[in-house]
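Q: Can I see a sequence and its folded structure?
A: Here is a first one.
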Amino acid sequence: MAEDGNGVLWAAGQYAFGRIVNGEWHRAGVDEGYVAPAAQWVTVDRLRNVWVATDGYNFASTSDTLRRNTVLVLHKGEHRFAPTGVAVSAVPQIAERLTEVFGLRD
């Protein structure tokens, strides 16, 4: 779980990924650019960008970048997750270093 600084609590799990806003659960979905059925890990960086490692597809064994486990980012103020192009298999954690690798946005 990670809190984004706006009172939104993001939750990653093997069966779902979404957020709790004002006590209500909202599952992340295709309309937000999130096509995976679940998430391995979620974190929020110091600029309040939400980073998530997807889960539930096939651990990078496909060339379809939306169907393999990957890292997505929801930049502060935006409403759709953007792909980073990074394929992953098992992700024990995501740390602030990712923002340095992919560049910070104010």
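Q: Show me another, different protein.
A: A second, unrelated one:
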Amino acid sequence: MRPSLSALLLVPLTFAFGFESTGRGARPQSLANAFIAATDDPWLVCHNPAGLASLSVSKGALCFVPAQFGLRELRSATAVAGLPTSVINMGIMLDDYGSALYRESTLVFGAGRTIADGVAVGMSLYLGLVAIERYGSALRSSIDLGVSWQVIENFRLAYVWRNVTGARLGLAEEPLPESHTMGFTFVPHRSALVTLDLEKDIRVPFVIRAGIELHVLEYLSLRCGSSNDPEILTAGLGVRLSHWECSYALRSHHQLGVTHAIGLSYEFPR
């Protein structure tokens, strides 16, 4: 079967922002990916590895995006796990994005550790493969560094430096995105969470992302968020039953349309 014209047109766009699959967690997506100062969540392995230090129990999660921007050729499936130990907390993620026409496969290893009262540091190693039909494939590896600081009980600051080594992709040595992100989370009430990230890629203007999470019932959370560049509005919810949580996220891009994501996570009993 020949790939659709729309998918062919999106290959340059996707390639330009390689390894930016939106399938990395339904909860982060519903908060517009304003997530670097979050805590106790295995998806932090790819948002801020320092946050892994806050994991209290082992957790695993899955996320599936059936059609990014409404295109099945840009679907993604992601699995993640976080494991706390007495020495260091670890995380691992496997992400598969795209189709036979264009595919990104990414493996991430992360670790986070508390080094002082309220202060944690972390590192994530990305190993990936980009394959484009009829054009071949290319390998990449990069490193992210992160810091997280619990300033006071209800306020946390965080910082992430992505691609600290300035890694490039393939024989053409296409530079991969390198950015610096500052963020915070604020808990004004035990049933509410406010998140904000301010990101600066060395090649593009500042990006501001913000999200709000409300625990309206013991088992139900409502989420929303927005981003300015690109202009994205997000919404979602999480339903928790015992050690399980089912999540849904909707992302609306002002030009490319709507993306849906579904997630399932499990918290292993202590």
